[in-house]
Amino acid sequence: xxxxxxxxxxxxxxxxxxxxxxxxxxxxxxxxxxxxxxxxxxxxxxxxxxxxxxxxxxxxxxxxxxxxxxxxxxxxxxxxxxxxxxxxxxxxxxxxxxxxxxxxxxxxxxxxxxxxxxxxxxxxxxxxxxxxxxxxxxxxxxxxxxxxxxxxxxxxxxxxx
Length: 161
Prior knowledge:
Elements: H1 2-21, E1 26-36, E2 44-50, E3 57-65, E4 70-78, E5 83-87, H2 88-94, E6 96-97, E7 101-102, H3 112-122, E8 141-160
Antiparallel strand pairs: 1-8, 2-5, 2-8, 3-4, 3-8, 6-7
């Protein structure tokens, strides 16, 4: 009797893995965790967003701290059958956003808004209002992100250490 239960459990696990790997595109996706290093680290999370349809899509990525506080929303356009690859460390350390946009209004990588964002995602006291927005994670910038689109998209992630 227990042998048949273990076979059934194995079958269900394999079926679940097959369904998860073949998930269809969706208009809202979750990046459940990211971790990037600070100024002197190479640790990062890479995010690749693909529009598998012929229809262009407007995509927005909302970055949340590990306390689920929204920190940053980055909108960008994605043509049909196009892929946008993003290095989240570039966003938070250098202010380099998709479509050659910059977080800092002057185009530099050292503005007050970027300093505030890094402190908030690192769990340090924010220089803007002396409040905390996340739990410290050993100097890393951590959180999660939600992707929303006007057309179904797919996303893939990988971590660099």
